[in-house]
Design brief:
Chain lengths: 187, 346
C-alpha cells in the first residue's frame, strides 16, 4: 500500500492499494495544515501501518508554508514506517488522468496561479507561474482550474509514470533583498 | 523513570534534534542555516523554513545513529510548538506529528523558552531548585521565574522591541562588521575601552521601574550607537573598538543588572543563563563577577546546550513524560508568541 500526502492546497491524505483507495481524509481549510495533519494521518493509517510499502508526497506548486508541512510529513512518516519516500508534482495528480491536451492550474496566492500542460497524461510544460488574470492560453488545450488536489491522485500519477523527484516545487525565490548600507539616523 | 525522548527544535534558523534518556544526553545534532542569512544581516524566515525542510529528516537519522537507539525504543517525541517563527515551527511540528503517528509514539508540543531552562538538567544542574533564568538570543530576551520547571514558570519580563542578539547584529552592520554580530563585535571590542562612550541602558530610568522593571529595550541603544557612529565618522574620529566595547558593555550591563534585580526581588539566589548570546564572553564574565558579589549561584550550561538545540526540547519532554503529563491533544498547532507560562500545549 502507498501512503500519499498533499498539502499544496488544503491537506489531503490517502492510503492506496493498487487502484483501490483504502482510506482518504481531506481538510479543505488552506491555513490549518499543521493542526489537522496528525488527526487525518492517524485516521487514514488506522490499522494499516505495517502494510505501507512507500510514501509519496505532493511536491507542489503551492503556498510555501503549507506545502512544506506535507513534504516534511511524508519524509518523517516514511522514516517512522521504515519505508522509502518519493515526491511528484502535485499537478500530476490531476493531469495524468486527463485525455488530450489539458492545462491544469492551481491557486498559489498573491494573485498568481501555477499551471502545467499535459498531453495524453504526460506533463509537457510547466509547472510555471502566471498572474491569475493572465494565465497563458494554450491553443487547443482544455483548461482545468483545480480547486483540489486529492492525495490518491499522486499514487495514480506515480503508476502512470509521472517523473519522481524529491525537491519542493516553490517556483518563487524566498522573499529577501540583501541589506543596503544603513540609513543615516541624524541629519 | 527515565524516559527515552527524541526532541525536535525548529523555532529559528537551527534544525535541532536531540535524544535523551531522562536527564542523560545521548545525542545533540544541529544543522544551522546561519550562513545562508549572512548576506541579509539577519534571519530571513522563508530561507530558514526552506532549510528546515531539507535538513529535518537527515538530522533525525543522524541523531538516532549518534544515540544508538531505534525509533521503536522511544517513549515519546517532543517538539517546539512556540515561541518562534511560525513557518519554521510548522516544519518541526509537521515532522514530529507524522513521525509520531507513523511510529506509534505520543507527541508533546513544548515551549522553546522553558526548553532553554531544561537544558541545564542535561548539564547536571540543580534543576529541581527554584531559579531565575535569563534567556538571551537573536529572537528572545526574557527573564523567567522558574518555581518548578515542569509546572510553574512565570515571565517576569521580556524585550519590548529588539532581542539582544538582534541588537548585536544591527550594530555590527552599522560598524561594518560581520554577521552574526555577537562574535564579530566581541572580536572588535578586544582592544576597545568599554567606558569610552556612555551608551544608554534601556528601561533603567526610575520612571520605567514601575511598568518595565524586568523588561528590556534595545532599539534606543541601537539608535544612540548609530548617532555616535555618524557624528564621530563625520569628524574623522570613529573608533570601532571603543564603540564595540562600549555598546557591548551597555547590553551586558543591563542584562545582568535586571537579572540580579529579579533574584533580589523574588529572593531566589540562583541565576541560570541560556540562549545564543551566552556565547558572549563579556556576558559570562560580568554575570560571574556580579553574581559572586551578590551571593547568587550562577549556572551556565555548555554553549552547545545554550544555543538552540533539540536536546533541550527532548530534556523538557522527558521531564513531562516522567511526571505523567499527557501528550498534547491531536490537532494542536504552533504558537509563535507562546508565553513561557505555557510549558506544554495541552
Amino acid at each position: 500500500m502507498i501512503l500519499a500526502i498533499d498539502t499544496s492546497l488544503g491537506t489531503s491524505i490517502a492510503l492506496v492499494d493498487g487502484d483501490r483507495v483504502v482510506a482518504a481524509r481531506d481538510e479543505h481549510d488552506t491555513r490549518r495544515h499543521a493542526e489537522v495533519l496528525d488527526v487525518l494521518l492517524s485516521d487514514v493509517l488506522g490499522e494499516h501501518r505495517h502494510a505501507v510499502t512507500q510514501v509519496v508526497a505532493g511536491l507542489g506548486p503551492g503556498a510555501f508554508t503549507g506545502l512544506r508541512i506535507g513534504i516534511v510529513a511524508a519524509r518523517t512518516a516514511a522514516l517512522g514506517l521504515g519505508v522509502p519516500w518519493v515526491g511528484v508534482c502535485s499537478h500530476d495528480a490531476v493531469g495524468v488522468a486527463e485525455a488530450g491536451l489539458v492545462q491544469v492550474t492551481t491557486d498559489v496566492r498573491r494573485r498568481e496561479r501555477a499551471w502545467s500542460l499535459y498531453d495524453g497524461g504526460q506533463r509537457v510544460q510547466g509547472p510555471a507561474l502566471a498572474p491569475a488574470a493572465d494565465v497563458p492560453i494554450v491553443d487547443g488545450a482544455r483548461r482545468i482550474d483545480a480547486d483540489w488536489i486529492g492525495a490518491a491522485g499522486l499514487v495514480a500519477a506515480l503508476h502512470a509514470g509521472a517523473e519522481p523527484s524529491r525537491d519542493a516545487i516553490y517556483l518563487r525565490d524566498a522573499d529577501a533583498v540583501p541589506s543596503a548600507a544603513p540609513k543615516r539616523v541624524a541629519r | 523513570m527515565r524516559p527515552l525522548v527524541l526532541g525536535i527544535e525548529t523555532s529559528c534558523d537551527e534544525t535541532g534534534v536531540g535524544i535523551v534518556r531522562g536527564d542523560e544526553l545521548l545525542a545533540n545534532v544541529v544543522a544551522s542555516s546561519m550562513d545562508l542569512h549572512a548576506r541579509f544581516g539577519g534571519v530571513v524566515p522563508e530561507i530558514a523554513a526552506r532549510a528546515h525542510l531539507e535538513a529535518m529528516e537527515p538530522t533525525i537519522q543522524r541523531a538516532l545513529v549518534e544515540a544508538g537507539v531505534t525509533l521503536d525504543e522511544l517513549d515519546a517525541i517532543a517538539v517546539t510548538a512556540g515561541p518562534g517563527l511560525a513557518g519554521a515551527l510548522m516544519v518541526g511540528v509537521g515532522a514530529a506529528k507524522a513521525l509520531g503517528v507513523a511510529a506509534g509514539k505520543p507527541v508533546h508540543g513544548v515551549n522553546h523558552l522553558v526548553g532553554h531552562v531544561a537544558a541545564d538538567a542535561l548539564a547536571g544542574g540543580p534543576i529541581e531548585q527554584e531559579t531565575i533564568a535569563l534567556l538571551v538570543s537573536g529572537g528572545h530576551t526574557s527573564l523567567l521565574h522558574v518555581r518548578d520547571i515542569d509546572a510553574d514558570v512565570r515571565t517576569l519580563g521580556e524585550t519590548i522591541d529588539d532581542a539582544a542578539g538582534e541588537a548585536f547584529d544591527k550594530v555590527a552592520r552599522l560598524l561594518g562588521l560581520g554577521y552574526p554580530g555577537g562574535p564579530s563585535i566581541d572580536a572588535a571590542a578586544v582592544d576597545g575601552d568599554p567606558t569610552a562612550i556612555r551608551f544608554p541602558r534601556g528601561l533603567t530610568a526610575p520612571k520605567d521601574r514601575e511598568r518595565h522593571r524586568f523588561d528590556f529595550s534595545f532599539s534606543g541603544l541601537k539608535t544612540a550607537v548609530a548617532r555616535h557612529v555618524e557624528r564621530s565618522a563625520d569628524a574623522g574620529e570613529l573608533s570601532v573598538p571603543d564603540v564595540a566595547a562600549s555598546f557591548r558593555e551597555a547590553v551586558v550591563d543591563v542584562l545582568v543588572t535586571k537579572a540580579l534585580d529579579a533574584c533580589a526581588h523574588t529572593g531566589v539566589p540562583r541565576l541560570l543563563l541560556g540562549g545564543g548570546v551566552v556565547a558572549n564572553r563579556r556576558l559570562r564574565e560580568l554575570a560571574a563577577e556580579r553574581c559572586e558579589a551578590a551571593g547568587v549561584a550562577l549556572r551556565v550550561p555548555p554553549l552547545s546546550l545554550c544555543t538552540d538545540n533539540g536536546a533541550m526540547i527532548a530534556g523538557l519532554g522527558a521531564r513531562l513524560v516522567a511526571r505523567g503529563v499527557a501528550p498534547s491533544a491531536p490537532g494542536f498547532g504552533v504558537e509563535s508568541t507562546l508565553d513561557a507560562g505555557v510549558i506544554q500545549i495541552a
